[in-house]
């Protein structure tokens, strides 16, 4: 894997705009290259502003009819639950793009978690036409970072961090809601691009631990993210990057 590209923006607003610009650029490149844009969305709250920008200011920048939308993880709640990652994406972007239902590949958080994980794996096999032991190659996987260095729903101490064969697993995490489905590291690390989007002072210690701390994926699960044959981008605002010692590319 090549070194991560670390881009630091002045503030959160500039970060969200830069993320939307990057996504629009990757979408165009992907559609030109292979006729669709396979995007794996992250959950939580950070990406909401970028999703909103993509649906408004950047609406005409992407040929949305070629979007195929997936999730990196989902909470085990119904799709209209305020805690649902699908619900957040649907509110901020998907419901504003006039997509066909077949373009949206959500994780069924309302189902029995192990069953939902198996269903999602089958959906990935079908869409990416995967053979035995093959993993999907997303054009872009978006990720957030928890203040305990988790990403997707790969939490400290969870065996899922070391999963090498399953594509999606059900996990029990130390956060609300506790039951989740998450993509596994081999899927994320098979992506063409992985983009972390991290904002705020509260994330600065985790950013420092993951990027400059000792290698310990059980303690800092986000360290497991290292695309074998893809690009890793960290988009940070100045606050989230404030504890980094190495100079990074301060984007103008
Ligand atoms: C989730 C996310 C999770 C999130 C981080 C950061 O389902 O919550 O997948 O990995 O990206 O917890 O969350 P915030 O953006 O809300 O800080």
Q: Write down how many β-strands occur, each being a DSSP E stretch of 2 or more residues.
A: 10
Structural class designation: alpha/beta
How large is the radius of gyration? 17 Å
The 3D shape can be described as globular
Number of helices: 6
- Describe the oligomeric state of these chains in a short phrase: single chain
Biggest sheet record? 7 strands, parallel
Arithmetic mean pLDDT: 96
Specify the helix fraction band. 25-40%
Poorly predicted tracts of residues? none
H/E element string? Answer: EHEHEEHHEEEHEHEE
**What is the terminal-to-terminal distance?**
27 Å
Q: How are the strands of the largest sheet arranged?
A: 3-2-5-8-9-1-10
Fraction of residues in β-strands: 15-25%
Bound compounds, each kind once, are: 6-phosphogluconic acid
What does this entry look like structurally?
This protein is of the alpha/beta class and 252 residues long. It is built from six helices and ten strands; from the N terminus they run βαβαββααβββαβαββ. The strands form two sheets. Strands 3-2-5-8-9-1-10 form a seven-stranded parallel sheet, with helices on one face. Strands 4-7-6 form a three-stranded antiparallel sheet. α1 crosses α2. The longest helix is centred in the N-terminal third of the chain and has 23 residues. The two termini are 27 Å apart. The site of 6-phosphogluconic acid has 15 residues, from loops.
């Amino acid at each position: 894997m090549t070194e991560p590209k670390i881009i630091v923006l002045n503030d959160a607003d500039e970060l969200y705009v830069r993320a939307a610009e990057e996504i629009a650029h990757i979408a165009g490149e992907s559609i030109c290259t292979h006729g669709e844009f396979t995007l794996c969305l992250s959950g939580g709250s950070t990406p909401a502003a970028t999703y909103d920008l993509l649906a408004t200011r950047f609406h005409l920048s992407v040929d949305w009819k070629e979007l195929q939308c997936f999730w990196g993880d989902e909470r085990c709640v119904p799709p209209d639950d305020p805690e649902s990652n699908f619900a957040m994406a649907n509110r901020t972007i998907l419901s504003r793009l006039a997509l066909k239902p077949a373009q949206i590949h959500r994780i069924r958080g309302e189902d029995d978690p192990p069953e939902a994980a198996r269903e999602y794996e089958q959906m990935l096999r079908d869409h990416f036409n995967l053979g035995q032991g093959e993993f999907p190659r997303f054009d872009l996987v978006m990720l957030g970072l928890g203040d305990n260095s988790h990403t997707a729903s790969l939490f400290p101490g969870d065996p899922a961090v070391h999963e090498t064969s399953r594509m999606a697993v059900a996990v029990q995490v130390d956060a609300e809601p506790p039951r989740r489905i998450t993509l596994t590291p081999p899927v994320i690390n098979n992506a063409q691009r992985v983009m972390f989007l991290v904002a705020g002072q509260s994330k600065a210690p985790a950013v420092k631990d993951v990027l400059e701390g000792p290698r310990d994926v059980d303690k800092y699960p986000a360290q497991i993210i290292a695309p074998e044959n893809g690009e890793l981008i960290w988009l940070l605002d100045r606050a989230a990057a404030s504890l980094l010692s190495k100079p990074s590319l301060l984007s103008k």
